[in-house]
Amino acid sequence: MSPCPRRLLRRPAAEMRRHVPLRSAGRFASQTRPAARSIQYGLALTPREKIVDVSTNNILSEFLNAYWLRPETALWRTVDVNAMADFQFESPSLDVGCGDGMFSFVRAGGQLDKTFDAFQATTNLDKFFENVDVFDAFDPSSSPLVMRKPNYQIDCGFDHKENLLRKAAALGLYKSVKQGDADSVFPFSDGTFNTVFSNIVYWLTDPGKAIAEISRVLAPGGKACLMLPSTKLPEFSFYNQLYVKTKDERWRFLERMDRGRFTDNIRQAKSSEQWEKYFTAAGLEVDKHTNHLSGTLVKIWDVGMRPLFPVLMRMTRAIAQSELAEIKQEWIDTLKHFLLPIAELDANLSSGGQAGFHCYILRKPLR
User: Fold this and answer.
1) Which residue did the predictor score with more confidence, 71 or 6?
2) Host domain of residue 127
């Protein structure tokens, strides 16, 4: 599950606070479908890519640097990276639902300066508990301070949110980014990509249709990596267990903590047999299937520091810039003391079918 919701359904209703024109559709646009807007960052294809061999400690450190005010997100994404360790990007490659690109950037070995984080551009913090995506904002004056470039590039980042794509494009990971609706026909020709990654399929209205589209744009012999919720996930949701199931009004306050996550994605939780029916229908075969994100971890993430985020942002903005880096580092070091053991233990805690997510590596047959 993507810790920060970003459904690929339609463009946001609200206008951007600052507008930066996008360039015209790029080299991946299908000639037979409506053009989608894109930002180009180079056309040359790269050879087969390999992930960076880094420890769980280093991965967690980079995610905490980016998401220090949302440490539950850093923990979740660290375990996601470990789960997909056997997946390699082979060009041309596609990231479906790339969002702001931060997950794939860190996974590729990218590193941000300690003074930069994923919260440089936010909006509507006063509407946080109305389920507004506060990260759907872009500030052109705040460029990411990249200390280490990613070790490989992904050919195309695909998402429906214009502001998130602008953030993703600035990281230098994607050769191009394209705006489009993953609940519709993907704006790419058949067999365009050798590899496709997505951790947002379950946010969509019709995940089966999206899986079929992923198969369509994959070249024969190509691979896809998908993160998908298991039937255990609803059991780990406080909102689902204490309010949705019981209808006990005393637990209604948990709606504010859930912020629409249950209705938007936990509803798509399925068994491996159910997901594999979608794969078979789409003409995909399972190369590898693992489970991750234990009940312990998901319950920590379910609360985390999410409810405090708006006030934490206000507190952070009140800190003098001369002191912020030191305070942030102390914050990260303290969090790592508690989060690193959980990340390292997740595989053991997830054994015996007690995991909230599937990680599938799929192959499109040559035939």
Assistant:
1) 71
2) 38-230+271-363
The phi, psi pair for 345, rounded to 5°, reads: -90, -5
Specify whether the CB–CB gap between 269 and 323 falls below 8 A: no
pLDDT in tens, 285-325: 999 999 999 999 999 988 887 778 788 888 888 989 889 88
Question: What is the phi/psi pair of residue 362, to 5°?
Answer: -115, 155
- HSE toward the beta carbon, residue 356, CA cutoff 13 A: 26
117 alpha-carbon distance from chain centroid = 16
- The pTM assigned to this predicted structure is 0.81
Q: Which tokens hold the place of 365?
A: 């047959």
Residue 129, domain CATH: 3.40.50.150
The predicted model gives 332-351 an average pLDDT of 94
Predicted confidence (pLDDT) at residue 34 exceeds the cutoff of 60? no
Does any domain span residue 259? no
Cα separations (Å) of 121 from 71, 135, 140, 323?
18, 7, 9, 20
For the record, the structure tokens of 65 come out as 């640097």
Q: Is the dihedral of CA 350, 87, 162, 100 positive or negative?
A: positive
Is residue 127 in a domain?
yes
Q: In this structure, what DSSP letter does residue 29 have?
A: B
Distance, in Å, from the CA atom of 39 to the CA atom of 140, rounded to the nearest integer, reads 14
Place of tokens 């214009």: 162
Structurally, the chain folds into a number of domains equal to 1
What are the phi and psi torsion angles at 296 (to 5°)?
Answer: -60, -50
The rounded distance, in Å, linking the Cα atoms of 157 and 197 is: 10
Calpha distance 218→324 (Å, rounded): 45
Instruction: Look at residues 154, 80, 73, 68 and name the one whose alpha carbon lies nearest to residue 110.
Output: 154
Q: Tell me phi and psi for residue 243, to 5 degrees.
A: -120, -55
Record the tokens describing residue 154, joined without a space: 């992904």
36 class by beta-carbon count within 10 Å (0-12 exposed, 13-18 middle, 19+ buried): buried
Residue 240 lies in a domain: no
User: Does a structural domain hold residue 198?
Assistant: yes
Instruction: Please provide the distance, in angstroms rounded to a whole number, between the alpha carbons at the two ends of the chain.
Output: 32
Ramachandran sector of residue 275 (left: φ over 0; alpha: ψ -120 to 50; beta: rest): alpha
Instruction: Write out the two tokens for 363.
Output: 């192959």
